[in-house]
Amino acid sequence: MATVSASMLSCDFSAMGRDLERIQIAGADMAHLDIMDGAFVPNITFGAPVIKKLLPFKKIPFESHLMIENPERYINDFRDAGSDIIIVHAEATRHLDRLISQIKETGAKAGVALNPATPLSAVSEVLGNIDILLLMTVNPGFGGQKFISYVTEKVSQAAKIRNDKGLSFLIETDGGIDGTTGPAVAALGCDILVSGSYIFRSPDVKKAIDSLKNA
């Protein structure tokens, strides 16, 4: 059974607390919080102060996906705001190993994300130190994009590396995940499915989440 992380990027920003409650009641395992700075990606969303406002509604883990330049400047802020998992992009920092250690020192779990065109070799040296490897299946920046099919090969490669080396990191995919693409990547070894538009635009949120869990 897959773990489902509902992307709040697709929620109603004027009622984030209400929508967080909706996905929790519907059975989402985690809330995925997309943090964008308008520099690393061509969009701006929200930051740690907004996440902190969601704490009274929180009943599931928060994973903050930092699509920002120089993320090391803000790790403590996102941890203090209630992030249980902090995911950073390998492309956004010069000192990835040190950044992973910085995240873990806060008590949060550490994840590393790769854009579609970034090879797995970019993180080969740190796979034994991370909790989650997030493979982007769209180019980050906007919700509702089409799934990039060639990333499925990267999912397979990551699963093989994990098995061959006896590692324990979880594989996560984010972008264009729905009732078709979710089962496809889950079959290749993906453990966590991040989905936004498919969940929040569904007339039956619980049914959408269940279809991903059963992938």
Total number of beta strands: 8
Helical content class: 25-40%
Order of helices and strands: EHEHEHEHEEHEHEHH
Q: What does the average pLDDT come to?
A: 96
Task: State the CATH superfamily name.
Answer: Aldolase class I
Strand order of the largest sheet: 1-2-3-4-5-6-7-8
Low-pLDDT stretches:
none
Distance between the termini: 6 Å
Helix tally? 8
Please outline the major beta sheet.
Answer: 8 strands, parallel, barrel
Q: According to CATH, what is the class?
A: Alpha Beta
Gross morphology is globular
Describe it.
With 215 residues, the chain is α/β, with parallel strands linked by helices. It has one domain (3-213): TIM Barrel, CATH 3.20.20.70. The chain is built from eight helices and eight strands, in the order E-H-E-H-E-H-E-H-E-E-H-E-H-E-H-H. It has helices spanning 16-25, 48-53, 75-80, 96-105, 151-165, 181-186, 197-200, 205-213; strands spanning 3-7, 30-36, 62-67, 85-89, 109-114, 132-136, 170-174, 192-195. The protein has an eight-stranded parallel beta barrel with strand order 1-2-3-4-5-6-7-8, surrounded by four helices. Helix 6 (181-186) links the parallel strand 7 and strand 8. It is globular, with a radius of gyration of 16 Å.
Give a topology summary.
Elements: E1 3-7, H1 16-25, E2 30-36, H2 48-53, E3 62-67, H3 75-80, E4 85-89, H4 96-105, E5 109-114, E6 132-136, H5 151-165, E7 170-174, H6 181-186, E8 192-195, H7 197-200, H8 205-213
Parallel strand pairs: 1-2, 1-8, 2-3, 3-4, 4-5, 5-6, 6-7, 7-8
What is the compact description of this entry?
31% of the residues lie in helices and 20% in strands.
